[in-house]
Amino acid sequence: MATSQGRGAVKPVRVLIIDDSATMRKIIRFALEADTGIEVVGEAPDPTEAFRLVDTLDPDVITLDIEMPKMNGIDFLRRVMKHRPRPVIMVSTLTVNGAATTIEALARGAFDCVAKPTLTDSASFAELAEKVRAAGARRRRAGAPERSPTPRGAGAPPVGELPTIGVKAIAVGASTGGVEALIAMLTAFPADCPPTVITQHMPANFTKSFAERLDRMCRPRVQEAQDRTALARGNVYVAPGGDQHLEVVRRGDGLESRLRAGETVSGHRPSVDVLMTSVAAAAVGDAVGVILTGMGKDGAQGLLAMRQAGARTIGQDEASSLIYGMPRVAFEVGAVEKQIALNGIARAIFVGAATRKEGTSCHS
């Protein structure tokens, strides 16, 4: 279970818990108060009481249930972001409806999401506390209201149908803030993009809803990745959340997806490091790797392997990242060829590829 140590005089992150279940509020309180860097300052069983407590307590972070009486989590989130913006972490059940609504909340500006913890799941306790601390730190660094529900990459024009010479695959990794970032980036992708594989840190059952949402918004076809599928142009494949890693392997003259069980890598399963290391081996230099916003270091070594194999590598810059963690570590280890603002990444991928001449080695 995560604990905060060595924080000195740093004030704890003040949290308001919103959930209509008294039992769940106690479980979440237990999960958070085990961390000395977090203080639960209030609980609310419904949005009406929650609005009053937001005004009187001014919490740093809110944990928010999706399904509540009187007002659902999306409507509450919209009102909070408009009138009293601050980081909101969605705490959702692993149901089809709960997952779809959580993805909508993330697209509307929620900081992150976690599956509802249980008394027997210590991993979910640690994840919840870690994200609350990160959300609190983000708000304090900003020193201002959190953000509007408009994606940071909004306004980037779609990239035209440009030839992606020599690019066999695009590999993308993201975590906290990744839903907004991926929507902004992928909605600018052309319909005939090279096969694109994505690992986004997300609870099990949420990735299918996320892929379906992206598919409705983007010109390429977006789907949750399946085992042993030939990767085709015009398709984007999202790693399923849960207990498997997504990898890419050679199949004849093309590439194929593989899902495999295994231990966590860089703290995650699926892991961005696993995905990108496999793309480095399967596509060698004929690929592009992209690290987007997220906590931690997952993807840094995998992106480094891609760059060493001759692939082009891009990191989201600090100014446009919700959490400049994964992109920062990747940059520091030398994995990032260029740091680019989110709304310029799609153009950098495709215009950069279009400038390569036929017959030019990707290793040059």
From TrEMBL:
PROSITE patterns: CHEB, RESPONSE_REGULATORY. It is found in: Cytoplasm. The active site is at S175, H201, D298. GO terms for cellular component: cytoplasm. Its EC number is 3.1.1.61, 3.5.1.44. Involved in chemotaxis. Part of a chemotaxis signal transduction system that modulates chemotaxis in response to various stimuli. Catalyzes the demethylation of specific methylglutamate residues introduced into the chemoreceptors (methyl-accepting chemotaxis proteins or MCP) by CheR. Also mediates the irreversible deamidation of specific glutamine residues to glutamic acid. Belongs to the CheB family. NCBIfam families: PRK00742.1, PRK12555.1. Contains a C-terminal catalytic domain, and an N-terminal region which modulates catalytic activity. This is Protein-glutamate methylesterase/protein-glutamine glutaminase. It comes from Nitratireductor arenosus. The lineage of its organism: Bacteria, Pseudomonadati, Pseudomonadota, Alphaproteobacteria, Hyphomicrobiales.
